[in-house]
């Protein structure tokens, strides 16, 4: 039974590193169903519920400090890898498909909330807002929105399960749709000449990082996180624009600015950011209990209905604007699956689409937090009196 901080702190990075290491070493098929980050969350949650540590004031203080410090540092590192000019260079038609995919996700979530708000728990609108953040961006956006809107730890497992299960099924569907592309394109009247695909060079990577690079980026990210929090404390706040919101915003902007400087070419921000994300998820999971899992089946159902509505709305928009199947699939998965899966899908369609998929996933990462907070504002206005 752990009751002091240092054993707890030693266990968190260990738990965060187990499943990413297993995936890289053995490449088990189980990781294609649930990614390592979900296994990390479930594993640490099981340890927490099993009573491996006690939520003493000392440990609770460490959990709050780690969460508040790691989040802006993580977002800064993720933004450093984003190239806004390259994203804008992919062309207006590609960006239009991406925008339609995002719009269909947000509309679907709003419709599902209107249908199920009477039976969802009081935090249902917060849960769907968090889901909208990860389905337009990624896990880091989900964590950011969770912290800003105050989603409880007990409600988070339902969101993660719905995200993982719906995403896994959607990946399987998309990888099997290539043979239907000609029929879909004929139905939408899409231009099948390939002229709508910008000819981009491969996305440049920063190369492998050494110990010095990782320590450099870790220290810089921590300084940016601390500076963002200090600036946020000086800003006016409101119901949605909280001090955490300002901190996230400042860290994001600094990361995007650094991305346009020679400093961004130093190896390490991506790998350091991935490590911080795994650690942050482990810390969040360590605060969990099973009190919110009673709503998991209902919320998973909401997730699947949201996915079906997203597919239907996007298909209608594709018909209206004559989008082709490849760009629709990539734009959807770039948001719901992120940079880990969208390029793989693109490679099965056409090699020229791989860098586009990466750039669209990066764009989702940039706007995901904003979209999640926007949906929180919309859904909270639709919530029954006294909800949340």
UniProtKB/TrEMBL annotation:
The keyword Zinc does not apply. Pfam families: DUF819. This is DUF819 domain-containing protein. The chain crosses the membrane at residues 36-56, 68-88, 94-116, 128-149, 155-176, 214-234, 240-259, 266-286, 298-318, 325-346, 352-376. Keywords: Membrane, Transmembrane, Transmembrane helix. The keyword Transmembrane applies. It comes from Steroidobacter flavus. InterPro entries: DUF819.
């Amino acid at each position: 039974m752990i009751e002091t901080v240092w054993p707890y702190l030693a266990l968190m990075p260990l738990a965060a590193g187990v499943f990413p290491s297993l995936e890289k070493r053995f490449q088990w098929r189980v990781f294609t169903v649930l990614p390592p980050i979900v296994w990390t969350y479930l594993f640490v949650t099981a340890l927490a519920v099993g009573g491996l540590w006690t939520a003493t004031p000392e440990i609770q203080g460490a959990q709050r400090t780690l969460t508040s410090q790691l989040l802006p540092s993580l977002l800064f590192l993720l933004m450093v890898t984003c190239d806004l000019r390259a994203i804008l260079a992919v062309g207006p038609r590609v960006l239009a498909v991406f925008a339609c995919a995002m719009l269909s996700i947000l509309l679907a979530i709003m419709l599902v909330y209107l249908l199920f708000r009477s039976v969802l728990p009081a935090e249902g609108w917060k849960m769907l807002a968090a889901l909208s953040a990860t389905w337009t961006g990624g896990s880091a956006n989900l964590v950011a929105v969770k912290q800003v809107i105050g989603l409880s730890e007990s409600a988070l497992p339902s969101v993660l399960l719905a995200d993982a299960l719906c995403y896994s099924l959607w990946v399987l569907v998309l990888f099997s749709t290539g043979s239907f592309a000609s029929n879909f394109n004929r139905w939408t009247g899409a231009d099948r000449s390939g002229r709508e695909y910008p000819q981009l060079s491969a996305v440049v990577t920063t190369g492998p990082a050494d110990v010095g690079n990782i320590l450099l980026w870790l220290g810089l990210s921590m300084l940016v996180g601390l500076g963002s929090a200090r600036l946020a404390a000086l800003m006016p706040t409101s119901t949605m624009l909280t001090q955490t919101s300002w901190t996230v915003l400042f860290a994001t902007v600094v990361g995007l600015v650094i991305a346009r400087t020679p400093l961004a070419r130093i190896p390490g921000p991506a790998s350091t950011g991935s490590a911080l994300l795994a650690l942050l998820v482990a810390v969040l999971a360590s605060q969990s209990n099973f009190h919110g899992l009673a709503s998991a089946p209902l919320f998973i159902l909401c997730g699947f209905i949201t996915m079906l509505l997203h597919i239907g709305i996007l298909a209608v928009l594709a018909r209206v604007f004559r989008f082709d199947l490849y760009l629709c699939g990539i734009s959807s998965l770039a948001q719901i699956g992120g940079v880990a899966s969208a390029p793989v899908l693109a490679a099965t369609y056409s090699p020229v689409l791989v860098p586009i998929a990466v750039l669209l996933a990066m764009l989702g990462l940039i706007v995901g937090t904003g979209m999640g907070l926007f949906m929180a504002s919309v859904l909270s206005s639709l919530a029954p009196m006294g909800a949340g």
